[in-house]
Give the backbone structure.
Amino acid sequence: MLHLACVIGDVWAPYPKWLGTVVGRMPVGTRLAPPVRAALAADGWRERQDSLAHALTVLYEAQRSAGLPVIDGAPVRPFYDRPFLGVDDDVLDALRSEVRDPFVRALPPGIGAIEQWCDGPAVLMDAQRRRAVVWAAAGADAGVRGGESSGS
């Protein structure tokens, strides 16, 4: 959620050690902190889930305020017939429908942000390495984009 707050706020997400500090200094941070703290302090999963749903709603309102696509209603819904909540698929569809870059559109959904599966500063802080890792995870050739070699 903290990484998502940075994306919505158009702020570079630092490595995890500083992520909470950066989000806390963002305008959304003051509204996001109470439900996140409540989730961390929750005694049971239902209380934790309710707090996380509240935090997602705070982020969703920030998304709306940033002019990003949203749907009517809450961003979370029941996860099929289970007693859990999940992000409404329509939220994801609304965001994907606004992606215009053909190379970003070509990335397979579901691999997530590089920070979800790589924490090496040598990769994350180097644009060329970062791009190569992302394209490798996506099953694409990082050296070729739009028919041009990255070396030209």
Q: What stands out?
A: The first strand starts at residue 76 and ends at 78. Residues 6 and 13 are 6 Å apart (CA to CA). The radius of gyration is 17 Å. The chain has two domains: 2-98, 110-142.
